[in-house]
Write a structure and sequence with these properties.
Layout (H helix, E strand, L loop, with lengths): L2 H37 L6 H12 L8 H24 L2 E5 L5 H9 L4 E5 L2 H9 L5 E8 L3 E2 L1 H9 L3 E9 L3 E4 L10 E4 L1 H6 L1 H7 L2 E4 L3 H11 L4 E5 L1 H7 L2 E4 L9 E8 L8 E7 L6 H11 L3 E9 L7 E8 L4 H10 L2 E8 L1 E5 L1
Parallel strand pairs: 1-2, 1-3, 5-16, 7-8, 7-9
Antiparallel strand pairs: 3-4, 3-11, 5-11, 6-9, 6-10, 12-14, 12-15, 13-14
Helix pairs in contact: 1-3, 2-3, 11-12
């Protein structure tokens, strides 16, 4: 056995020992996670991290190795924090808005027994999933009356998430006012822009001014806080009960089959389901989109929908969100890659029908 072979044997032995020590360390980390969870402590402790690095570097006798060992221990600590975040976020569901928002209602339907955390915007929900504050996020994506939520499309392109499942939820919009108010009193109506669009015919007949709000439940919360008979919100019946409002009119949406499609997002790529979504870009030239559509057809996939969205920073250039029925396997993915400039597979997932 030559010197190289001897060194490799020694490295293999040390690696086995390191693997065993790594498992022992992570077993101890589990106890740290349990304590932090029980006591509501944050994962990040900069002072503790600095002490660990300082202490461990002193164990190294060879001065030449010290900066490299510090780099190694920094990665070990980062790995530990990542694991802690994963454990703490397991089964936690994030949604945008406050209690009573349609996203909250959908979250309760999809994950009835999971802990919920709320954020003020869709993007913050994506960030919560990516940063492992939550395992899943529930996001409204498309409504049968008001169409797609463009900012969600942008976030699907921007963040490294996958669609875990898609759930259709029937939406009944109600006009909510403070106790004692009537339709004749209302001058101002607050709600999410999509909700205002869904009830535009009703609002036109009511002859009121509308003001867009981040989401329906926050609008209800605001109206309740104002205690003003001239102000009303559009939202769910559940929001009326939560915030002490009265339902002045129900089923005010233009389409009685009003349905919102919610996405469940997560970091793991799902493999089982009956639908697949991708985001693609094509060359900015004649026939490029046709080439892509022909490629989808050649794979024997039925294209359920295709939506375009402007690419930020590239005027008059677009990316496309495409949903197909079936599975895009590696062979199909290679075919599609040859027909477009870039492709991001968002996962193969189940589509769950609406609940009345």
């Amino acid at each position: 056995m030559n010197l190289l072979e001897e060194a490799r044997v020694e490295i293999d032995r040390i690696d086995r020992e390191m693997a065993a020590l790594y498992e022992q360390r992570m077993n101890a980390v589990i106890n740290v996670v349990k304590y932090k969870k029980e006591n509501g402590l944050p994962i990040l402790d900069n002072s503790r991290e600095a002490l660990i690095l300082e202490k461990n570097v002193k164990y190294i006798q060879n001065e030449e190795y010290k900066p490299f060992y510090k780099e190694f221990m920094t990665s070990v600590i980062s790995n530990s924090k990542n694991y802690q975040a994963t454990v703490l976020s397991t089964d936690v569901v994030a949604y945008a808005g406050v209690e009573g928002a349609f996203a909250h209602i959908a979250s309760e339907r999809i994950f009835p027994n999971n802990a919920k955390i709320n954020f003020s915007s869709f993007e913050e929900v994506f960030e919560a999933v990516v940063n492992k504050k939550a395992q899943y996020g529930v996001i409204p994506f498309e409504n049968t009356n008001s169409g797609l939520v463009g900012e969600v499309l942008d976030a699907l392109l921007k963040y490294p998430v996958y669609i875990q499942k898609v759930v259709d939820q029937s939406i009944e919009q109600c006009l909510l006012g403070v106790p004692g108010s009537t339709l004749k009193d209302i001058e101002w109506v607050y709600s999410k822009d999509q909700a205002l669009a869904q009830a535009k015919n009703f609002l036109k007949n009511l002859k009121v001014q509308t003001i867009s709000y981040p989401n329906t439940a926050m609008a209800a919360q605001f109206v309740a806080s104002q205690n003003d008979k001239t102000k009303a919100a559009i939202g769910a019946k559940e929001a009326a009960k939560l915030y002490g409002l009265e339902i002045l009119a129900d089923k005010i949406e233009a389409n009685t089959t009003n349905t919102t499609r919610f996405l469940v997002i997560g970091l793991e790529e799902p493999k089982a389901g009956n639908h697949t979504s991708v985001i693609v870009t094509v060359k900015h030239c004649v026939g490029s989109l046709e080439k892509l559509i022909n490629a989808i057809s050649a794979c024997g996939l039925n294209m359920a929908s295709i939506q375009s969205r402007p690419i930020k920073g590239k005027p008059f250039e677009y990316f496309f969100f495409i949903e197909v029925e079936g599975v895009i396997d590696p062979t199909y993915e290679r075919i599609l890659k040859n027909a477009c400039e870039s492709i991001k597979v968002l996962g193969t997932y189940p589509l769950i029908g609406k609940k009345e």
